[in-house]
Design goal:
Elements (H helix, E strand, L loop, with lengths): L15 E5 L15 E3 L2 H11 L4 E5 L7
Antiparallel strand pairs: 1-2, 1-3
Length: 67
């Protein structure tokens, strides 16, 4: 990274993935990666509600592995 004041993210801290589900509106049939990753479910859900009120989903990437 070029800015020494920006720490590289620890990907293991980002447990929740936000997906925009365009296939719900018949916009695509192709699979896409998550829009963003979050350390907590509430942040992911709030982003989804603001951007795509009815066509998003939040997935727990760790499943039941973490408390």
């Amino acid at each position: 990274m070029s800015d020494p004041m920006l720490l590289a993210p620890d990907v293991s801290e980002y447990r929740f993935a936000l997906y925009c589900r365009g296939h719900l509106l018949d916009l695509t049939s192709k699979a896409y990666p998550p829009v963003a990753l979050y350390p907590d479910a509430e942040s992911a859900r709030l982003h989804g509600v603001r951007m795509w009120p009815s066509t998003f989903t939040v997935i727990d990437l760790a499943g039941d592995e973490r408390p």
